[in-house]
Amino acid sequence: MLYDIVHFSDYLFAYPVAADKINVRIRVRSNVFSKVKVFFKNLYDHGPEIFEKEMKIILDDGVHALYEATLAVKERHFKYYFELRAGADVFAYTADGVMKNPAPRNYFYYPAVNACDIIAPPAWAEGEIIYQIWIDRFYDGDPLNNPPGVKMWGAPPDRGAYYGGDFAGIIKKLDYLRSLGAKILYLSPLFYSPSYHKYDVADYYKIEEIYGGEEGLKELVDAAHAKGMKIVLDCVFNHCSAENELFRDVIEKGASSPYRDWFYIYDFPVDASRCNYDTFAGAVPEMPRFNTANPEVIAYLTDVARYWTEKLDIDGWRLDVADEVASSFWREFRRKLKAVKPDILIFGEVWNHASKWMQGDQFDTVTNYKYRQWLIEFARGKIDALAFWRKICGNKMLYKTPSFNYLVNLIGSHDTARFRTTVADERIHYLALALTLTFEGMPLIYYGDEVGLEGDEDPDNRRAFPWEATGKEELEFIRAVCRFRESSPALKKGDMTLLAAGPRFLAFKRIHGTDAVVVAVNFGPAPEKFVFDFKEIQIGKLIEVDNCPAIGPYGFIIGS
Which of 316, 73, 83, 285 minimizes the C-alpha distance to 185? Predict the structure, then answer.
C-alpha cells in the first residue's frame, strides 16, 4: 500500500525552536494512520537506549495530515525515525524509506542546532490585533500643519490630494483605537516624498512636516507606548523617488557617480523619458529601483532603519514589496535591527506563499493575502466552508509552527478594493471581519473596516475616515469580538480544530491550555442546526429549529 509519506530533515519538517529542542513533522495521507510516533536520541549516542514520543495532528486538509512533535535532549544533535500504525500494519519510516527494523545508519540526522536557525518571533506580538492607518485620511488633529489645497473631509479621493490627517489626529484617537483591542498601529509611509502616498522616498532622514514632523512622530510613539500600544512604520527599501539625492547624483554625473551601481542602470545618460533603468513595477520612472544586493546599498538603507529605531523607539517595520528585495539585504536588516532592539517586529509584504522569508533569518511575519482571497471566495459562495478550511490548512502546512500565529490575516488594505465593496453586502462584511478576529494569526483592521467603509481600487480605497459612522450598532459588535479576543488566551494563541462545515456554515474550536472557545459563523440566509459543546455563549445567540439549537441566518456565535 502507498502511504504518501513526506519528511525531510530540514526546512519545514525539522527545525529548532530552542537550543536543545527541534520540531519534527511528517506529512501522511489523511485518515490512514491511527498512531504516529517518533523515536530519537543523541546523534553520537551509540547505546541501545532511545526515547519515544507520540506525535499529534496539527493540520488536516482532508487530503494530507500533518503530524508534529517537539523533541528535547540535553545535547544539540539528534537522530530519529518514525513509527506509523495503520490497522495491523506497523512499520518504520527512515532516511532510507519504509522498513520494519531500522538500524542507526538508517535514521534521519539533525546534525546541530544553531542559534541563528531558531524561530523566535517577538512574544509581545503573537495573536495581537493590527490597525493599519493611512495617516492623511484618518483624522486631522492639527490644521496648522495642513498643506495648501487640502480637500474637504469626506470628499471623493483622487491621486495627489491631501486631507490633513496627521500624528496629532492619531494621538487624539488612541482611546478609540484601544477600544478596538488594537495593540499594534501600522502607519502608512511618512518619510519626505513628492507624492501623496509616500512610497517614493526622497529623504530617508526627514519625516513629513505635514504629518507633524519628527517631533510629532515622537509624541505619537510616546503616547501609544503609554497606553500599551506599539508603533510599526511602513517603509520602502526596494525603490526610492527619482528626486532622491542619490538618484539625482546618477542623473547629473552619469557613469562617474559613486552611486551608479546603487541602481540598475541600463545605459548612460540616465533618461526618465526612456526609462533606461529598472523601476518599481518595471516602468515607473518616478521610482527607480535600488540594487539591494550591493553591500553599500545594504549598509545605507539598513542604517536608516537602525537610526529611527534607536532615536524614536520604533517597535516594528512593515516592508513594502519585500519579495523583490535581495535576501542578503533582509538578513543584514534583521541582524542590525535585532541587535538594537531584540524584540522588534519585522513585517514583510508578500502576496503569495512566503515561507522562504520565514526561516528565522529574515521576517517575523508577512501579509497573508491568500487568506483574503479564499475568504472572499467563501463569502461570495464561490467555495463552501470545507473548501475554505482546507485551503487555510494547506497554506499553514507551508509554514513552521511558531510562525502560524504571526501570519497577518487581512480582509483588505491600501492595495486592494475594500472588502465591503467587494462582497456588496454589509452583513457579510461584518461576519468576515468577525471571523478574521477569531482566526489563528494576527488580524489586521484596515482603517474604516470596523465601520464598513466602502471603496473600490486605488484611490477609492483610501477615503477619509467617516467618523460619523462610529455610532453604528455593527461597530459595537466588532468591539465585543475584539474585547473577547483580547481576554481569551485561546483566541490569541490557541490551536484550531474544525467542528462542522456546511455550504455556508463554519464552526471551529480554539484551545490554549485550559481555555477553550468555539466559534460558529453562518454566511447563509437559512438557519444552521449545530450541537454546541460549550457552557456559555459569550457573543451572539442561538435560535431553535425543529427542537434543535441552531445559528440564525447571517449569525455569529462565540461560546466558551
Answer: 316
What is the C-alpha to C-alpha distance for residues 300 and 259, in angstroms, rounded to an integer? Answer: 11
The CATH architecture one would assign to domain 14-115 is Sandwich (2.60)
Contact at 8 Å (CB) between 489 and 511? no
Instruction: Considering the candidates 142, 320, 449, 454, report the single residue annotated as catalytic.
Output: 320
Answer whether 533's CB lies under 8 Å from 500's CB.
Answer: no
Among 450, 472, 453, which Cα is nearest to 463's? 453
**What does DSSP assign to residue 295?**
H
Domain with CATH 2.60.40.1180 in the chain: 493-559
Q: How would DSSP label each residue in 371-403? A: HHHHHHHHHTTSS-HHHHHHHHHHHHTTS-HHH
Name residue, grid cell 538618484. 247
128 vs 533: which has the higher pLDDT: 128
- Which CATH number does 123-492 carry? 3.20.20.80
How far, in Å, CA of 409 to CA of 367, rounded? 7
- Catalytic residue status for 384: no
Q: Which fold has domain 493-559?
A: Immunoglobulin-like (2.60.40)
Instruction: Look at residue 377 in the predicted model and tell me its pLDDT.
Output: 97
Q: Which three cell numbers stand for residue 480?
A: 465585543
- Mean pLDDT (whole number) for 439-456: 97
Quote the pTM value: 0.95
Q: Among residues 237, 202, 200, which one has the least CA distance to residue 326?
A: 237
Contact between 542 and 550 under an 8 Å Cβ cutoff? The reply is yes
Active site residue 349: yes
> What is the per-residue pLDDT across 71-88, written as a single tens digit (0 to 9) for each?
997 788 899 999 999 989
Q: Is the confidence at residue 95, as pLDDT, over 90?
A: yes
Given 68, 128, 214, 349, the catalytic residue = 349
